[in-house]
Structures are given as C-alpha cells and as structure tokens.
Predict the structure.
Amino acid sequence: MAFSLLSAYENSAGSITVQNPATGAAVMTIREYSAGDVEAIVKKAQASLPAWSKRTGKDRAAVLKRWNDLILENQEELAQIITAECGKPLAEARGEVAYGASFVEWFAEEGKRAYGDVIPTHNPASRIVVMKQPIGVVAAITPWNFPVAMITRKVAPALAAGCPMIVKPAEATPLSALAIEELARRAGIPDDVFRIVTTSSPREVGEVLTTHPLIKKISFTGSTAVGKILMRQSADTVKKVSMELGGNAPFIVFDDADLDAAVEGALISKYRNAGQTCVCANRFYIQDGIYDAFITRFAERVASLRVGDGSENGTDVGPLINAAAVEKVNALVKSAVTDGARTVLGGTPDARGGNFYAPTLLADITPDMDIARAEIFGPVATVFRFTSEDDVVAQANDTPYGLAAYFYARDLGRVWRVAEALEYGMVGINEGILSTEVAPFGGIKESGVGREGSRYGIDEYMEMKYCLFGGLGN
Ligand code: ADP
C-alpha cells in the first residue's frame, strides 16, 4: 500500500525495509542514517537553537497548533501506517493518533506559560529572580509500541520549550515517525529543529546521541536494560535524562470491588495493543472471596476477543511485533504451566500462525514463577490469589519496577491506604487506563526518571536559572 504522507521517503536503494507484523509483507524501504550523518544533524540542530528558542511562546504555539491540526486531519492515514508496521487494530491506532496529537495541543499551550518566579528577597538590597530557559538540543529514542504518541509526547514539550529535537525511532516502526515529520514540515517546523533519523544500527547512533557534547538531554522510552545503558553513556557529559522504562504492573481486586467494572478494567488494561504496553496489567491479584467469580467472568470476556490482522474490521487483538516476541511470551507461559499454573484459556501461539498469540489466562500463579517477575509484553493475564490487604500490597511492591499499578475497591479507608502504599509513579483506582496528556506519566524505582505530559512535562526540557540582583540599595 502506498501512503501519500510517505511519498518523499520511499527509497528503493535504502537499507531499511519495514515489515508488516501481521502478514510478513514488506511495507516500504527507506534510507539509513549512519552515525556520521547523525553527527552532522546534531550540529545543524545546534545552529537552529538560537532562532527557535528566541521565538515567542505564542509564535511556537501557533506552529505547534498547525501541526496538531494536520495530525488530526490525517488521522486515518496515520492510523493505517501505525497498523501496517506495528500491528495494532485500526481502532486503537486511530486512538493513538488522537492521543499523540493531544500532547502537541497541550504543550502548544503550556509553552506560553513556562513561567519563572520572583522570590521574596533575603536581603533588602537584592532581588531574586528564577527564570526557565530551554536546555538546548535534545535527543529522543523511542519504542515501537506507540510509534506516534511516544514521539509527540517528547517532541511537543521540547519544541514548546524552545529546544530542537532529534528522534531515533524504533527499527520496527520508522514510518509513523516519518509521517509525523512530514506533517511537521507542512506545519512550518524548520528541518533542523525536528529531525527523524532512521537506522538499523541503534547502538552506534545511540552512542552519538548519548555522548555528543552538543546534546544536553536524552529522553528515552523503552526497556529498563537499554535505559540503563543510555544513562551510563550519558554520564560522561552529565546529560539530563528522562527515562520511561519497563513495568510490572499489579492489578488488585478486593472483595468489595465492583466486579463488573474490575473485569472490564482488567480486559482493557491487559489486552490493549496485545498486551504490549509498559503500563499493561502484568499481575492480577484477586482476593479470596471473589477469586473464582472473577476468573469465570474474566475468562468469558477474554474468550470473546477476536484475534486478527489489525486492518480487519472487528479485530481486538493484533499480532505481536515479531517472532522473537512470540517465542519469549510462549516460553514464559510454558515455564509457568510447568511450575504449576492452571491454563484457563489459550496458552499457545494462535492458530493463525505467524506472530499471533492466543489471548491467554493463567490462574494460580505464585511469586516464585518467572512469569511473576518478567514484563510479559503479550496477551497473557496471570492471576494470583490473596487474603489480606497488607500481604497484597507487599507482594505488589516486591519488584524493582514502579511504573503503573491498578486496584479496585470501594471502602474509602482502604482506597486511601492502598493508593498511598503502592510504590508506583501512577495508580489507577477503579480505572484500567490512566494515560492522558493532562496528567504526569512516569515511573519510580527502575521504571524511570522524569514525567511526561501535564504541566510538569515541559520542565524536563528547561533549565532553572536563579539570578541574584544585588547592590540595589535599600
Ligand atoms: P523493546 O525491547 O521494547 O524493543 P528496546 O529498549 O530494545 O525496547 O528499544 C527501544 C528503543 O531503544 C528502540 O528505538 C531501539 O532501537 C533503541 N535501542 C535499543 N538498544 C539500543 C542501544 N544500545 N543504544 C541506543 N538505542 C537502543
């Protein structure tokens, strides 16, 4: 399928051929940027910094708003590009485009309000002023599971703050990134202020981005293992970093919960994007009194999910990103079953073959199983039984990760106690989805550093400068 947004990027002599994970078909071939190319792009980004950062917030907002409008006007084609390279159902891809645009709209507004501060002085002859200034050239490295939104969530605040940004998208999903870049050009964002660099050598390009002295900040979304490498590489030039890393989200259902709401929340939290999001519920803890009832109702809903090519109408669960992902998920499931887990549904690759995995529900999981500690990243729900509040909170927190957690309960005292006790950056209470541009997204512990979205998100791209104006007289 030819995509009009990508017509400038087709490069049959290029070395990156993007594959459709549902069919294995080649989608398009594009050029490869080498580490040397990226060096030159960094210098151009630096050269673009003075002019871009001196534009008024209002002026940058106008450009970003045009970009937002163009993304929304092209929602359908962008969604088709996402589905073609990432596999998610079209309805989810359309949702991602709207979600991705929402960050552009939000930060267009926030850029105008990046206020400083005047602090009551400690000395009558001086004044204290705090100003916020753009940090400089920023590099972003992004994953394949939200190939539009994980880019706009970084680029929009960077550009709004006055920073040029270079983005290296994931190898599997460069086309969505290029389509977003095309729309940025049409909106009037200068070439050197926002550049996508596509490569099949992430390590080499990543090294340039994390060690280059002209780059002042790295914003990464991806695995904890790679995040740690990038933090180490960024240390020599003491770059500011934002890291959105892996999770191992608990989803707790207490006896007093609204069971129907909990089942619906569980379904969407687990099976969205075939379980391939960093905030997907990974461990379901169900209290004794409702354990069997929850599993019965959850199984009914999971059994109704339709597996298929994301471009087909009615598909709920698309393919996993590649064959290695299927193997990894299957190995975790097999090992859990060997260790005593009960297969309620699925437990094997899907009958369609290829990269499809059957929606799976495993019960009677225990903390010692590998699957309890790993980020599953597939359509597999694992259910634990628990008795007491203290015990489940301890189990939920017993992980190096701290991104998202969810729980369903109605007792007000319990709701507050558990919300405060969970060691996570985000907690959904009686809600299975918590992503929105207006709230701070991010993790603690080994799930990350920094926040994206909300009024806090733009601070990641600004430095605070304190000026003491002395000698003013009394
Ligand atoms: P996933 O396992 O979900 O693919 P990764 O953390 O491996 O997550 O990938 C996220 C992003 O990090 C991708 O853009 C990928 O190309 C990039 N990446 C992977 N390894 C490195 C590396 N050593 N240096 C820089 N970027 C990397």
User: Anything to note?
Assistant: Residues 141-143, 168, 170-171, 202-203, 206, 222-223, 226, 229 surround adenosine-5'-diphosphate (CB under 6 Å). The mean pLDDT is 97. The radius of gyration is 23 Å. The first strand starts at residue 16 and ends at 19.
